Amino acid sequence: MNTLAIVILNYNGKGYLEKFLPNVIEHSKGHEIIVADNCSTDDSVAFMKEKHPDIQLIELKENGGFAKGYNQALAQVKSDFYLLLNSDIEVTENWCEKLLETLQDETVAGVQPKVLAYDNKSHFEHAGASGGFLDRDYFPYCRGRIFEITEEDTGQYQEPTEVFWATGASLLIRSKVFHEVGGFDEDFFAHMEEIDLCWRAKRRGWKFMVNPEAVVYHVGGGTLSYASPFKTYLNFRNSLFMLIKNHEGPLFIKWLIRMCLDGVAGARFLVLGETKQLKALWEAHRDMYKKLGKMLKKRKELKAFSTQFNAAGLSKKSILVQRYIHGKTHYSDL
Predict the structure, then answer these.
(1) Mind listing the pLDDT tens digit for each residue in 267-313?
(2) Residue 8: closest CA among 51, 37, 39
(3) Which residues are CB-contacts of 84 (< 8 A; sequence separation ≥ 6)?
(4) Alpha-carbon 143 to chain mean position
(5) Is the pTM of this model over 0.85?
(6) pLDDT tens, 223-260?
(7) Which of 76, 77, 190, 223 has the fewest Cβ atoms within 10 angstroms?
(8) Which of helix, strand or coil describes residue 99?
């Protein structure tokens, strides 16, 4: 019988653990639950030891972000499947079983549930919605979410579908695949590390799916606000890291196009007077250059291990053009 470990990476999330962990316990019977604490400075560890002494607690010695935190935690977990779960998520009945059904297909590496907003349960949540895709310039979007626009869930994206990436907020993945591709890239710290992970697995032919019959409700921005300049910094920098590492064809032209598009984003920040966001964008590019040599080395290493790239979920369209020139705000209109 296959084993499943639900692993919650926590950082200063005592309030979320208090609110949502009992719900996870209730709807995940028969599966191991582990909380990995990412060197919290609140009372998370004391809370777990007092209120949930039966739940395995992994205490990490430093906060290395989402990527390093999960790498260190999962190195200590022996299971056939890992179910990575944010601490600010409410799960529903049979969510694990629905996800596990998808992995009966041996070609599927990982799967996510449908992710709805906890504070507005009729609408999709930003982080994952009903499955993730990349456009031709490697900007991410979802069924149910294009940039800042999230759709109402009316059952329009209810069918299980192959996607390019599955959200790290609630990701069921084969442990052998996670370790086979080297886990999360710790240079990312946080944000888009799951897209990079999926991309590296897809370079070996693996599939990723969304199964909307499994449903979770995500608070979102629990650790870092969506409007945070630091999140802007991570998203721009890590998107460039992904491109440099994983782009299949000649790199320079694709990289140059992205630099120009980021320049347009910078001009928009300037016009809107969003100086903190503009500074975050500049710092993202500065730090991308600092690690350019390292990313090029990773690119070379990945090419050596790539076998057959599964490009499903990679669009030939520009989501920027679709959103800001054609005015399309729904995935179904693309």
Answers:
(1) 999 999 999 999 999 999 999 999 999 999 999 999 888 888 999 99
(2) 37
(3) 7, 9, 70, 168, 170, 171, 172, 173
(4) 15
(5) yes
(6) 566 678 999 999 999 999 999 999 998 999 999 999 99
(7) 76
(8) helix
**For residue 296, what are the contacts with CB-CB under 8 A and spacing of at least 6?**
244
Q: For residue 239, what is the enclosing H or E element?
A: helix 229-246
Long-range contacts at 15-19 (CB < 8 A, ≥ 24 apart): 16/87, 16/88, 16/219, 16/222, 17/44, 17/47, 17/48, 17/87, 18/47, 18/51
CA–CA separation, 278 and 317 (whole Å)? 26
Paired tokens of 136: 């031709």
Picking from 134, 132, 136, the residue whose alpha carbon sits closest to that of residue 157 is: 132
Residue 222 has what pLDDT? 56
Return the bridge partners of 57, or none: 35
Q: What is the pLDDT of residue 225?
A: 66
Instruction: State the CATH architecture for 4-218.
Output: Alpha-Beta Complex (3.90)
Contact 7, 77 (CB under 8 A): yes
Whose CA is closest to 41, among 14, 69, 71? 14
Cα distance between residue 164 and residue 198, in whole Å? 7
